[in-house]
């Protein structure tokens, strides 16, 4: 429900921006909604994996230990953008060849060669590409490390999600002020908090001229486990 509400709110904010395209508060609200939609999708995906693991339904591909031999890690190597490496793909716990795009502290942005997808990982989860003359087989990456990395990544997204929810609560008052101000000036003929055209409509952030369609309210965030 939250995800649907966010998407509907985004549509209505975009509609309001056609009336006031340079309104900074609306622009910020639009950007926040886009980010919270992406975070919500990511958290839902992470929660589904957690639930499958608890129920014992997760398959080998989801949580299997790494099966491919990994090269010896050179912890002192000075990685730089443009270097080729093997990087961990969290979705299946495997290492794939990738190109380093940027490095910020311990975080490394890479683009995988096989599917051109971008991923943010850490220095701990990138390896040197094995030499053609053969390398001794090192130990597999412990599954617990992969799971811990996933957990930390999820927590970061959850913290950002909560931060955005708090900001959206304050934006609710700005919406009211914006609606009142623009209605008085005649910029918006119909208040974005006006009653809907039919008895089943809901009063929310406004219909933005969409007849009979109530605006969703700012809903509190669901408690993510």
TrEMBL record:
Location in or out of the cell: Nucleus
Matching InterPro entries: Tudor
Coarse class of the protein's main subcellular location: nucleus
Keyword Nucleus: yes
Chain ranges of the Tudor domain: 78-136
Source superkingdom: Eukaryota
Gene Ontology, cellular component aspect: nucleus
Coiled coil: 147-174
Swiss-Prot/TrEMBL keywords: Coiled coil, Nucleus
UniProt-listed Gene3D superfamilies: 2.30.30.140
Protein name: Putative survival of motor neuron-related-splicing factor 30
Species of provenance: Panstrongylus lignarius
